[in-house]
């Protein structure tokens, strides 16, 4: 069942007011007749010409909007100077109401364009269907390139222009939830390495569980890749790295490691390099983002260590890759565990807890319960020390000076961090990142 209807009048010129009013009236009448049981939310998208007041821009539509009592409280006119701005505003309204099934009613000649905007601004969470707005196309009524028509692919330069328009709009948006904040470890020498762990502030993601500096997009979440890209651009500007030389692990919750410069595996939870200026990153939203640095051999790495990856030894697999590929000495490698779910909050079923109990009984609290509390950080430290990493070269929440602690519990600090455990399926993601300075 359609939850929302978007009527796209953006391409219709203002000098055709009577025609637009008639079109809108007929369209709303059809919606009302088809929606007698469930009235959808209706958004009318139109162009705000430069120099015009938004209110004035909407006034000529008012006659067409009168009389639709069942839709009246569920209808909004969205005016903006660009399609990107208007559609992003509509997306915000849909997300506020958790709506996902949308019918788009638009001129036939706008369909190919609109699909490109939608592909960039929405994810697979949303379902769209399209219906033609009955417009007689002529040079006066539609502001559309002459080569476009239904069934014809857009030219690559048209797609590039749309991408540019969206990016410019997103770059103009204010940061949410405060300034962008980066946590840094005192263990990693900043004269050789650039590194940090992000928090959730300073980006543009607006959905509560994703706000604001979400750094991961997936088909199951409402934040599109282009928004994540803008958040990353802002992070890169603040941190001082090149977002075009940024490599994030392809999470598989296992222990494969990618060696930069060699064939990239399909999935991997660890990544290492000795190339300068290349930023490596591992996500975390309860799972541990782990950073590795060897100031002697000038090599670094990042790993994503959830409970499965911890048991599979992803951190030592990353260390071993640095040793085998770059000749690193185990005793020179520094390891920092970033913000992650703590033993105060994290539970696993008893069968999984047994595996952590085998590593060390201190990794499990209330072992005899159905869902014991698990300390994946302690387990990671123990496995690293057993593998040859010096205890003093590992920084985690056991640090003596708590003013230096950056291994906060993500579930305990909703103002600072994302947490899958706390927030559910539509959760945001922070990262740990590291690179070798030029």
TrEMBL record:
Keywords for the protein's UniProt record, in alphabetical order: Acetylation, Cytoplasm, Endoplasmic reticulum, Hydrolase, Immunity, Inflammatory response, Innate immunity, Metal-binding, Nucleus, Peroxisome, Phosphoprotein, Transferase, Zinc
Nucleus in keyword set: yes
CDD domains: YfiH
SUPFAM superfamilies given in the database record: CNF1/YfiH-like putative cysteine hydrolases
EC number: 2.4.2.1, 2.4.2.28, 3.5.4.4
InterPro entries: Cu_polyphenol_OxRdtase (IPR003730), Cu_polyphenol_OxRdtase_sf (IPR038371), Cytotoxic_necrot_fac-like_cat (IPR011324)
Gene3D superfamilies named in the record: CNF1/YfiH-like putative cysteine hydrolases
Main location class: cytoplasm
Record GO cellular component, one term: nucleus
Subcellular location: Cytoplasm; Endoplasmic reticulum; Nucleus; Peroxisome
GO biological-process terms attached to the record: inflammatory response; innate immune response; regulation of defense response
Oligomer status and interactors: Interacts with FASN. Interacts with SDHA. Interacts with ATF6, EIF2AK3 and ERN1.
Record protein name field: Purine nucleoside phosphorylase LACC1
Gene that this sequence comes from: Lacc1
């Amino acid at each position: 069942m359609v939850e929302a209807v978007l009527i796209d009048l953006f391409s219709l010129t203002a000098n055709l007011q009577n025609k637009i009013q008639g079109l809108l009236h007929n369209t709303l009448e059809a919606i009302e007749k088809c929606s007698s049981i469930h009235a959808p939310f209706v958004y009318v998208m139109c162009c705000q010409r430069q120099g015009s007041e938004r209110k004035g821009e909407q006034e000529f539509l008012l006659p067409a909007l009168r009389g639709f009592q069942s839709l009246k409280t569920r209808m909004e006119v969205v005016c903006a100077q660009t399609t990107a701005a208007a559609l992003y505003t509509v997306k915000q309204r849909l997300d506020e109401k958790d709506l996902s099934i949308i019918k788009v009613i638009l001129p036939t000649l706008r369909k190919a364009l609109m699909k490109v905007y939608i592909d960039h601004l929405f994810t697979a969470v949303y379902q769209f269907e399209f219906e033609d707005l009955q417009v007689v196309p002529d040079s006066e009524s539609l502001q559309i390139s002459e080569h476009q028509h239904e069934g014809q692919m857009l030219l690559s330069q048209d797609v590039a222009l749309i991408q540019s328009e969206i990016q410019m709009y997103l770059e103009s948006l204010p940061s949410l939830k405060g300034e962008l904040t980066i946590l840094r470890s005192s263990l990693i020498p900043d004269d050789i390495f650039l590194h940090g762990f992000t928090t959730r502030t300073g980006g543009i993601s607006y959905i509560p569980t994703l706000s604001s500096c979400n750094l991961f997009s997936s088909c199951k979440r409402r934040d599109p890749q282009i928004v994540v890209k803008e958040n990353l651009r802002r992070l890169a500007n603040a941190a001082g790295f090149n977002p075009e030389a940024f490599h994030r692990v392809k999470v598989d919750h296992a222990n494969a490691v990618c060696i930069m410069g060699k064939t990239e595996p399909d999935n991997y939870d660890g990544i290492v390099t000795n190339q300068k200026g290349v930023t490596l990153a591992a996500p975390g939203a309860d799972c541990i983002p782990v950073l590795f640095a060897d100031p002697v051999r000038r090599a670094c790495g990042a790993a994503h260590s959830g409970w499965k990856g911890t048991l599979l030894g992803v951190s030592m697999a990353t260390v071993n890759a640095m040793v085998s590929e770059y000749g690193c000495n185990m005793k020179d490698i520094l390891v920092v565990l970033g913000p992650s779910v703590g033993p105060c909050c994290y539970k696993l079923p008893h069968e999984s807890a047994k595996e952590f109990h085998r590593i060390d009984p201190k990794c499990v609290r209330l072992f005899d319960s159905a869902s014991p509390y698990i300390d994946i950080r302690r387990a990671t430290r123990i496995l690293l020390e057993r593998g040859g990493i010096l205890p003093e070269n590992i920084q985690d929440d056991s640090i003596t000076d708590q003013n230096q602690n950056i291994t906060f519990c993500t579930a305990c600090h909703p103002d600072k961090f994302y947490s899958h455990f706390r927030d559910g399926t539509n959760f945001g993601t922070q990262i740990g990142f590291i690179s070798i300075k030029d």
